[in-house]
Amino acid sequence: MFRPLLRTQVVVDIGVAVVLGGLIAVLSGSAIDGPVALLTVAGMTVALALRRLAPGLALAVAWATAVFQMATQQEPTIVDALAAGVVYTTSVYGSRRVRVLGLLSAVVGAVVAGVYMGVRIYGTPGIGGRPETLQESVYDGATWFVFTLAVLMLPWLAGLAVRARRSARMSREAQLLAERDAARADRAVAIEQERVRIARDMHDIVAHSLAVVIAQADGARYALRADPAIADEALGTIGTTARRALGDVRELLGALRHEQGTAPTPDVDDIERLVAQMRDVGLDVQVEREGDPSALPTTTQLAVYRIVQESLTNAYKHGAHGSPVRARLTYRPDTVEIDVVNRRSEDGRPGPGTGHGLVGMRERATMSGGSMTAGPRGADFAVAVRMPAQPSTGQMPRNRVPTEQEQSTR
Hints:
By secondary structure, the chain is an alpha+beta fold.
């Protein structure tokens, strides 16, 4: 019933009502004489003071005061105009029910005022000293009806317009807030996507290069005394791999520092170099190709390269040593298929990996609108990726945690 208002607002409403009620009592003079008329002024003053705090209660008080005024057969005075302020606040601040009651009060109040004044005037001396006839009383009642309806209806309509304008302003503010929140969310998503991309590229670069460096370093240590030439060749491979990885990392960091920077973007033609590098460290890689990849966009070629790179690195780190790795790349006009199969380690123990490589490959496939499956296939471990030749637009990769089976294998 009561609306939340500031203390200053309540004080102002009470002050305004008291001042207006006092002025009306003073200006009305002889029209307000005696306690009955003063009670009418007090009732309308209370209704006006409650207009914003409790519009429904203020309307009820105004009606009670009006009924009391008619029951005591008082003449209408300027104090009755305070009801217009009450009706106004019912349409501005009242609930839907109170707003409808305010409209009905304006119409019913006008009808009651017209009937009351018509009956009161009938038979009383009017202009010229003769009594008012029935026709004249009806005319006077109709005049009072129109006048009261205007006094009460116009404030109600004005309050409705103010309410609509305030609602429109609040809607605009809410829309602006929603757009600002949406912009912030878009920025947050873009930042998160960029972080995931950076982490994925960094993982692909560093993990592959370190795997090669570790393998060559171990081989060089064992071959140092037996065959220095082999050790020297291994050290050369370490230097070449490390320098290439350092260059890729520098390019990636340069893309972070400058908007116009270019991140490392290998393509399908670099798979030959990748396979040769893995063969140099002792991995038997057998590659089968079908189709022409020249029409693939840069993003798809990068995804193909990174998926093959991570698959071969995992096969080297976790697969059975000495067993061949079969990689099949199928380029069709609408799809690209990648299948990498290697023999699992015979001891069945999981490698030291964290599973981030599988997550990165799956994200790359999902980013392009494709899918990926990875897991044991008999005695082998198979990675199968299917993605469209032209990457889908407007899709966002969803991070997926690898299954326990995948984590135990990778």
